[in-house]
Amino acid sequence: TARFQLSFKYRIFDPDGWVSDLPFGQALTGLHFGYTQTSLWDLQSESKPFRDSSFRPSLFYRFALDDPDKRGSLALSGGYEHESNGKEDMPSRSIDTLFARAEARLRLSESGAYLGIAPKAWTYLDREDNPDIARFRGHAELGVRLGRDDGWLFSTLIRRGTEGKMGTQYDLSYPIRRSVFSGVGAFVHLQAFKGYGETLLEYDENKEALQLMREVAACR
User: Fold this and answer.
1) Ordered alpha helix ranges (H), 36-130
2) Of the candidates 94, 5, 85, which has an alpha carbon nearest to the alpha carbon of residue 41?
3) DSSP E strand stretches across the chain
4) Cα distance between residue 95 and residue 137, in whole Å
5) Which residues are bridge partners to 9 per DSSP?
6) Alpha-carbon distance 211 to 7, whole Å?
């Protein structure tokens, strides 16, 4: 199985643009639009189909604080996220959530290595297609990162459902080329996943997979 993922985060209003000169304009610069598209590719089947895909647009507000001595940072964000597999009729699955997330980083060395902790919590607005998904995905997750954004980076994501169903993901990534445009890069991921809740179609099935993934990520 292979995974293809495209993700980006876009700041809607430029901090140095005309909006920042308006009353409360600086506050508006915290608005972001995010998008992640993930496809699971079945390489073992004869026709090699994409087994499942998910599309996750989000609109959120992000507020960041930096340590004056550059030893760390803290960012708080909250907003709305929609997730769908883009299908119709019976295979169709979608959920809507409101979420809050904190991202803390502690700088470990002059080279840029850091330890990051990112707890996230959410509540479901609509889960008609997956009424029991909270049993397998729960209402919160914890992400931990160790490494450098421009080098080797190890991360893990731990999620626990309301009935004790666990989903754990491990990633090891490395950039494969320098950016062509500012904030855009390509990475190779080696990913291992075990447990429940990986996709909207198979969220209630216990999965165990080791996947090689190429990711293109953009951030403005």
Assistant:
1) none
2) 5
3) 2-11, 31-41, 50-66, 72-84, 94-107, 114-126, 140-147, 153-160, 166-177, 184-195, 207-219
4) 12
5) 34, 219
6) 18
For the stretch 34-58, pLDDT in tens is 999 888 877 777 777 777 888 999 9
Residue 143, token pair as written in the block: 């992400």
Pairwise CA distance, residues 28 & 177, whole Å: 34
Q: What are phi and psi of 20, to 5 degrees?
A: -65, -15
pLDDT per position as a tens digit, 177-213: 655 555 556 777 788 889 998 888 888 888 776 666 5
Q: What is the dihedral of CA 43, 50, 172, 105, to 10 degrees?
A: 180
For residue range 108-120, list pLDDT tens digits in order. Answer: 988 889 999 999 9
Tell me how far apart the alpha carbons of residues 117 and 186 are, in angstroms, rounded to a whole number.
23
| Alpha carbon distance 148, 173 (integer Å) | 10
- By the 10 Å C-beta count (0-12 exposed, 13-18 middle, 19+ buried), 200 is classed as buried
Distance CA 133, CA 15 (A): 39
Encoded tokens for 67: 């340590």
Spatial neighbors of 207 by CB under 8 A, at least 6 apart, are: 193, 194, 195, 196, 198
